[in-house]
Design a protein that fits this description.
Elements: E1 3-20, E2 25-38, E3 43-49, H1 52-55, H2 59-74, H3 79-86, H4 93-109, H5 114-117, E4 125-126, E5 129-131, H6 136-148, E6 153-157, H7 165-175, E7 180-184, H8 191-201, E8 208-210, H9 218-227, E9 232-234, H10 241-249, E10 255-258, H11 260-263, H12 266-278, E11 283-285, H13 292-304, E12 309-312, H14 316-319, E13 330-332, E14 335-337
Parallel strand pairs: 5-6, 6-7, 7-8, 8-9, 9-10, 10-11, 11-12
Antiparallel strand pairs: 1-2, 2-3, 4-14, 13-14
Length: about 350
């Protein structure tokens, strides 16, 4: 198959409730969808969300990079040649969308699903559901709603500058004793604050704390990782393979959060997974607030590496106002079905 053209579209999906973290607050998933057309009847689909607060990309920059930089490099190439070329491009969401579309083409050429093409070893994934940052009372209400709907893996967003994070965590843990709980501070805590909070919550049933400190504070992350009784997960500190290597070598986290939109797609994510396998470091397969195709790609990849991908955070469609917009992916409570 030869790449003939790339078409780009801008889409938006409304959310049931605003999605809020220490970094941003949004009411919609905005994303670029691209169709990579080949010289056959097959077309590959990829998508990339606008996540300026995390990746520094918006709809315009994603569109411009695909249209003006990546497309001219791969049009006229075979799919395999294009995949190799994409690996040399900037590792970001724009590249991820193209990479995903190329993998979609390869699986369609073989008339199999993407998860089959990637070598899925399991059909079962259970995702966390995000409890967005808000007042403690509203977060408790959202927690109870999630539990009532059978969603018992909770990612609790914290990091507000109101000194109430400890209250948020303790209140939710008290009311969700049987749930699996992740805490995500999105870089918002200082080392002193993180040490104090962790000391006060170490007795609670918390599985991990995600990115408590600034992304570039690996010394602080190392101190926290060494002192914390709760495992530390690196997210914004670990965008690509080189950053993952630095985090692991510096012992700045116990776990790595892999996101296709951070590292540049499936190809780069596989490199990270294989490195983490060699280093005996477990990972989370995570996502931004994303559209269906990119969530399906991440889930398909997680199914191929269940020994290394210990945790799943692919809940975006559960947050949509109309989950029917999540084509080709179905949620049975917190179980993901492709």
């Amino acid at each position: 198959m030869i790449i003939k053209s790339i078409e780009l579209q801008h889409h938006k999906i409304a959310l049931k409730n605003p999605f809020a973290t220490a970094l941003r607050r949004v009411s919609n998933v905005e994303f670029v969808r691209l169709h990579v057309k080949s010289n056959t009847s097959y077309t590959g689909v990829g998508e990339a969300p606008s996540t300026m607060a995390v990746t520094g990309e918006d709809i315009d920059s994603i569109t411009k990079e695909i249209r003006d930089i990546i497309a001219p490099k791969i049009i006229g190439l075979s799919v395999d040649e294009a995949l190799r070329e994409v690996l040399t491009c900037k590792q970001n969401s724009a590249t991820a969308a193209v990479d995903i579309a190329l993998f979609d083409l390869k699986s369609k050429e073989k008339n199999i699903t993407l998860k089959e093409y990637l070598g899925a070893k399991t059909d079962t994934l259970k995702t966390a559901i995000t409890i967005s940052l808000d007042t403690p009372d509203i977060m408790l209400l959202r927690t109870k709603e999630a539990l009532e709907n059978g969603l018992d893996i909770l990612k609790i967003k914290v990091g507000a500058k109101d000194t109430k994070d400890l209250q948020r965590i303790e209140t939710i843990c008290k009311n969700a004793k049987d749930a699996t709980i992740f805490i995500d501070a999105n870089q918002a805590w200082s080392l002193k604050e993180a040490l104090e909070i962790i000391e006060n919550i170490s007795h609670l049933n918390i599985s991990l704390i995600e990115q408590p400190l600034k992304a570039n504070d690996l010394d602080g992350m190392n101190t926290l990782t060494c002192k914390s009784k709760i495992p530390i997960l690196a997210d914004e500190s670990a965008f690509n393979l080189e950053q993952v290597k630095r985090v692991i070598e510096k012992k700045a986290a116990n776990l790595i959060n892999i996101k296709l939109m951070k590292c540049g797609g499936i190809s780069s994510a596989i490199e990270i997974i294989k490195y983490c396998e060699r280093e005996s470091v477990s990972c989370m397969m995570g996502s931004m607030l994303e559209s269906p195709s990119s969530i399906i790609a991440a889930a398909s990849l997680a199914m191929a590496y269940p020994k290394t991908i210990k945790y799943i955070d692919l809940d975006s469609p559960l947050l949509y106002e109309d989950i029917k917009k999540a084509e080709n992916i179905y949620y049975d409570k917190n179980k993901i079905v492709l």
